[in-house]
C-alpha cells in the first residue's frame, strides 16, 4: 500500500475523485488508475472513459505509482472499497463525495457558460435528470449565485423535464434571476470553508473499539484496518481474547 506517497495536492485529490466518479461502484482501483494514466485499453475505450476530463491526468507516471496515489486516497478517507460479490469496487466516502459534488456542480456551470458564449442552441436537458439530488440542488444554487439572467432559458428548458422537487428549486431560481434578487454569498462562503476543510483529509488512525463480549477496549491498528479493508471484512466486534475463546468453544463443540 502507498504509505510512502507524499501528501497529495488539492488538484490531485480532485482529479482522482473526478475520475472515480466515472466508475463508482462499477470499477476497481486498476480501472481508476487506467483512466488517470490515459490507457488505450479496450475496456477503457468501450466504456468511453477517454471522454472523462481527467483522462490521462497522470499520463507520464507508471501505473503502479498511480495505484499508490489511489491507495493514499483510500487511507486518507476520500475513497473506499466496497465489495460487489467478490469484486472490490471503488466508492466515495462522505468526505470524498462532498468534494466531488462541489467540483461536479462547477463543471456543469462552466459548461453552461461555455455553451452560452458559443451561442449554442439549448441542448436536451435530460442529461441532468436522475443524477444525485444533492449535487443537482447545489448546481441550481450556484446558477442562482451567478445572478446571470442569461441562464434563464436553460432553466426553463430543464424545468420541463424535471421531477417536482427539483422543479420547485428551478422555478425559484428563475424568479430570483428575473427579479434581480441581490446575490447572497454567505452560503457560498460557508460551502467553500467546508470544502477546504474536507480537502485536508485525515491521516489513518488506530481505533479503540469496545469489545461486545467483555466490554474491554482493544486497539484496531491502521495496519489491521488496511488488511480488513482489502479483504472486505467489516471491523472486528470482539477483542482478541474473546475471539480466541469463541474459536476454542467452537472447536470443542
Ligand atoms: Zn473481549
TrEMBL record:
The keyword DNA-binding applies. Keywords: DNA-binding. This is RQC-minor-1 family DNA-binding protein. Residues 205-247 form the Probable zinc-binding domain. Residues 13-101 form the RQC domain. Gene3D superfamilies: Winged helix-like DNA-binding domain superfamily/Winged helix DNA-binding domain. Signal peptide: none annotated. GO terms for molecular function: DNA binding. The keyword Hydrolase does not apply.
Amino acid at each position: 500500500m502507498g504509505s510512502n506517497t507524499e501528501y497529495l495536492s488539492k488538484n490531485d485529490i480532485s482529479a482522482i475523485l473526478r475520475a472515480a466518479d466515472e466508475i463508482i461502484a462499477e470499477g476497481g482501483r486498476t480501472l481508476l488508475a487506467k483512466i488517470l494514466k490515459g490507457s488505450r485499453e479496450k475496456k477503457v475505450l468501450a466504456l468511453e472513459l477517454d471522454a472523462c476530463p481527467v483522462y490521462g491526468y497522470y499520463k507520464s507516471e507508471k501505473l503502479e505509482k498511480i495505484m499508490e496515489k489511489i491507495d493514499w486516497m483510500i487511507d486518507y478517507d476520500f475513497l473506499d472499497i466496497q465489495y460487489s460479490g467478490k469484486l472490490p469496487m471503488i466508492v466515495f466516502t462522505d468526505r470524498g463525495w462532498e468534494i466531488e459534488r462541489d467540483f461536479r456542480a462547477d463543471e456543469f456551470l462552466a459548461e453552461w457558460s461555455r455553451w452560452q458564449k458559443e451561442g449554442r442552441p439549448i441542448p436536451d436537458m435530460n442529461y441532468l435528470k436522475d443524477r444525485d439530488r444533492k449535487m443537482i440542488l447545489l448546481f441550481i444554487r450556484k446558477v442562482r449565485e451567478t445572478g446571470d439572467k442569461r441562464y434563464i432559458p436553460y432553466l426553463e428548458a430543464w424545468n420541463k423535464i424535471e421531477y417536482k422537487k427539483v422543479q420547485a428549486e428551478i422555478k425559484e431560481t428563475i424568479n430570483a434571476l428575473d427579479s434581480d434578487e441581490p446575490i447572497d454569498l454567505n452560503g457560498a462562503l460557508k460551502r467553500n470553508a467546508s470544502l477546504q476543510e474536507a480537502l485536508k483529509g485525515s491521516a489513518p488512525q488506530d481505533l479503540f473499539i469496545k469489545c461486545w463480549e467483555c466490554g474491554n477496549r482493544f486497539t484496531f491498528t491502521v495496519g489491521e484496518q488496511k488488511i480488513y479493508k482489502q479483504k472486505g471484512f467489516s471491523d472486528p466486534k470482539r477483542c482478541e481474547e474473546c475471539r480466541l475463546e469463541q474459536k476454542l468453544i467452537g472447536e470443542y463443540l
